[in-house]
Amino acid sequence: MHTVSKRTLMDKTAPNRSTGIINGKSSNVLNWDDVRFPWAYPKYKKMLSNFWTPFEINMAQDIKQFPNLSEAEQDTFLKIIGLLALLDSIQTDYAGKVADYLTDSSLNALMIMLAQQEVIHNHSYSYVLSSLVSKQKQDEVFEFWRTEPILERRNDFVVRGYRDFVEQPNVEHLLKSIVFDVILEGLFFYSGFAFFYHLARNQKMVATSTMINYINRDEHIHVDLFVKIFKEILNEYPEYKKKLEPFVQQTFLQAAELEIEWARYIIGHRIDGIFINEVEDYIKFYANVRANQLGYDRPFEGYRKNPLRWIKAYEEVDLGKSDFFEQKSRQYTKVNYVDNGFDEL
Ligand code: ZN
Ligand code: ZN
Question: How far apart are the C-alpha atoms of 316 and 111, rounded to whole Å?
Fold first, then answer.
């Protein structure tokens, strides 16, 4: 078993460019032109250019529309916000903990930016709720994670994966926790995203959906960053590639099952115009995408195409292929195709 050690605060004898992704040597001085991984700087630029805050989003129209949503739509809306608030809260902390063990100061910097974005995501949930519902209701939404058993099962699943790493940090636990991370950021948000995009395509709650779209765009970058870190660790510790295979398969199958259970509960047959069997296929599709990104076999036979064809327009806003929302904040993001890394996904 390989241990993993924390980055030292300063090391006069070590180079600025680190000697390994983990367990290496580094002075801890950050010079973006002298970092170990060529993808780190483009990632930094991309994360900077995507900067946004909830204050840019005008909630006036959503405030008018919210009371006119069906009871089921309102309930689903609030439950999803409650779930996302929990996931983003945990994520802020997890990113910081991983950062401590990455030798290269540039990767530490990226993790800090990632964590800062999670803080903004959390802020956005408070921002939306304080616009739409009473303070009492808002507080209730932030308590859902304690009281909803389906949510509890799902959250415990991820938290357990994170906790093993936090309590017993070693290379295997770090790698496994990254698999849980990719599930959290790249799968567990997705039935929630689908619901908000479904509202938006019916011209409902477009401001909230725009915000969700920004969050989706950020999560997309986060998944890619963690996948890169995962692969770099495997480059240095190749024996784990094969060793983790059954774990990865099993974990993705279980994660998809939990996400489907959650989707049935919040979307089920109660939201007009969105079909639960399509959402289930969408979840299996994403489980396949994520396992494949990590370099493993897809856990579900088939499911190679996104079954929610309409959703692509929303998910791909990011890639500059379309722009469904007319919010002004969209304009300042200039995507540089050369170094944004999307072509690798
Ligand atoms: Zn987030
Ligand atoms: Zn994230």
Answer: 24
